[in-house]
Amino acid sequence: MTSGQPVSPGHLYGVGVGPGDPELMTLKAQRVITTCAVVAHFAARNRPGNAWTIVEDLVAPHQEVLRLEYPVTTEAVTKDSYESSIAAFYDESAARVAAQLDAGRDVAVICEGDPFLYGSYMYVHQRLASTHPTTVVPGVPAFAAATAATGRPLVSMDEHLTIVPAVRTASEMKETLASSPASVVMKVGRRLPEVVDAAEAVGIADRAVYVERASTGAEKVMPLLEARDQNAPYFSLVLFPGEAIDQRWSGR
Ligand SMILES: C[S@@+](CC[C@H](N)C(=O)[O-])C[C@H]1O[C@@H](n2cnc3c(N)ncnc32)[C@H](O)[C@@H]1O
Predict the structure, then answer these.
(1) Model confidence over 220-236: pLDDT tens digits?
(2) From 213's CA, which of 23, 141, 157, 192 has a CA 20 to 30 Å away?
């Protein structure tokens, strides 16, 4: 390249890689991941990173891997100090991605499930999409894989679906579950007992299903009422399927 010529910027891709089973990745995700010069992924300290585990066999030695490691996970910190350190971390992660883009390299920021459904990619997107050419590749969300594993539909006919993170207070959780014909509770982990309590309090625990690590070799699916004592991992959710289909078609 002639020195002094401007480099055309690389393209930023936010790539959903699905819930765990590599076969649940889209063809587009695979193409983007295998053709970008750089593959970036988030990971907790001392962990390989869930999204990375899904794609690692696709990434060739000539591709650069940018590991974006969260600074804080389980340490006891105040909400304010956590929020300022995580914001600084996303600023720094976006700057590292931008440096690659500005050097003319395409970057795939991979994300477990779908990037715009509680996916960490969105914090990079928020910082770079207005200044860099960007494409988001949707992915199969975990709740879809979990629903498939239960073998029963999640919503039908005129029902609506509520997606709620388990970090809500007990009263918010009860109110949310009671007001929706079908719900998905995400980010369950250590909050599982509170989810069971809320479901029992509003009388819907018996139709709820607990699913952990959907679509992976370690998948577990069980009625919520049998799951109360599970040591639920972060990659777990609870489904409250709607009942319209049963009410409408029962007896046929
Ligand atoms: C930060 S959110 C990411 C969601 C993801 N972007 C998606 O589209 O599903 C992480 C939460 O998703 C859920 N989750 C992700 N993968 C899962 C899986 N394979 N099985 C069950 N739950 C999963 C869990 O509730 C977990 O706490």
Answers:
(1) 999 999 999 999 999 99
(2) 157
